Amino acid sequence: MLIDLIISADDIKEEKLINKTVVVIDMLRATSVITTALANGCSSVIPVLTVEEALDIAGDDRERYILGGERKALKIEGFDFSNSPLDYSKENVEGKTLVITTSNGTRAIKGSEGAKNILIGAMINAKAVAEKILELNNDVVIVNAGTLGQFSMDDFICSGYIIDHLSKSTDIDLTDIATTAHYVYKSNEDIVSFIKYAWHYKRIIELGLMADLEYCCTKDCIDVVPEYNEGVIS
Amino acid sequence: MLIDLIISADDIKEEKLINKTVVVIDMLRATSVITTALANGCSSVIPVLTVEEALDIAGDDRERYILGGERKALKIEGFDFSNSPLDYSKENVEGKTLVITTSNGTRAIKGSEGAKNILIGAMINAKAVAEKILELNNDVVIVNAGTLGQFSMDDFICSGYIIDHLSKSTDIDLTDIATTAHYVYKSNEDIVSFIKYAWHYKRIIELGLMADLEYCCTKDCIDVVPEYNEGVIS
Fold first, then answer.
1. Which of A106, A139, A202, B164 has the most CB atoms less than 10 A away?
2. With a CB-CB cutoff of 8 Å, which residues 197-226 of chain B face chain A?
3. What's the 3-state SS for chain A?
């Protein structure tokens, strides 16, 4: 099984995704939000690129749809919830359809549409993602959402953690960038010793979102693997 | 001083280079060759993309021009020298113009033409490159040539070494990818403990080029900083 990695939503090259299992990672925080919402009984998640699309889909049916996401890490006006996974409790999401738009994660998901399968990964469901990858048994491209088109240390180390799970269960070949992600994880298994230097981490600290950080860095606490298919994640 | 990094010749985005000092790195082995040749009295280096261009420039004047480079890490038919820096001795290069074509390095140099200055960097001249960067006093983009359009661990750690020199002399701001390169270097100051896992390193070992590897990993043994200007490196 060959494992490659793309460093940001802006660096996706469609030809690299053909016949591959893609795992999209935006651990701070979009893919942690999506995973948490589905684990808590949300019926499906629709990722969209713009605020307008989100509002259009929800229309007046705000019983059925909830609107979530962020711009510049903050809640969007008129939306129900921000990009904090802690907002997506069973009470808030059960039986609802979440329409989500974020700066990086939703772009990375939509940009991966040429892949064979698109899984949604984070620290919180890394082990389950690795198991699903093994079951699908195709070569893998881990797509890091990154931050505003840039490489993001948090998504990179999360990729390394998923690779670490895979390395314990099967023979893997890694490209140099995937080897480096794995190296970074193996040298920083606590995660925070590495991501504390990340631009995105500092931004989230500035906003006082410590509880989000702690939750998003918790390994394997959810065994749901969201999958994106024709516009919908379930 | 802001320092960013681009992971391969295929990932260069021209808008990122405007008004920047670019350092092109292909430590195994094109930028080590260019640096060595100029240090040994080669009058100038012309990087070209194709074998045909190289042969055209040299024409019949093989007293003035020498032809160097590689395809698939091997010497090109009809050329004088391979991509081994050890070929570029004073005896072989003094007073000559080197026309060079390689799989990755020359593409990265030509792809960086939108920058303000284009320096040629490697482990062997890293300290001198850092000093030149400080003198130019612009923001920096380190362009890793990579290997066949892919991230390459060897160029990445070499970037980290140049960043380490800069960090000791001035205040630097690093993007997440530059921070990661610096982290990788600081954790592997001997270089080989990291690059022994690189695809490109393994290829060079297969070809029996141990002496090249040892030379290319020698820190700061040359104080020449080649600079590319309008098609010529001097």
1. A106
2. 197-200
3. CEEEEECCHHHCCHHHCCCCEEEEECCCCHHHHHHHHHHCCCCEEEECCCHHHHHHHHCCCCCCEEEEECECCECCCCCCECCCHHHCCHHHHCCCEEEEECCCHHHHHHHCCCCCEEEEECHHHHHHHHHHHHHHCCCEEEEECCECCECCHHHHHHHHHHHHHHHCCCCCEECHHHHHHHHHHHHCCCCHHHHCCCHHHHHHHHCCCHHHHHHHCCCCCCCCCCEEECCEEC
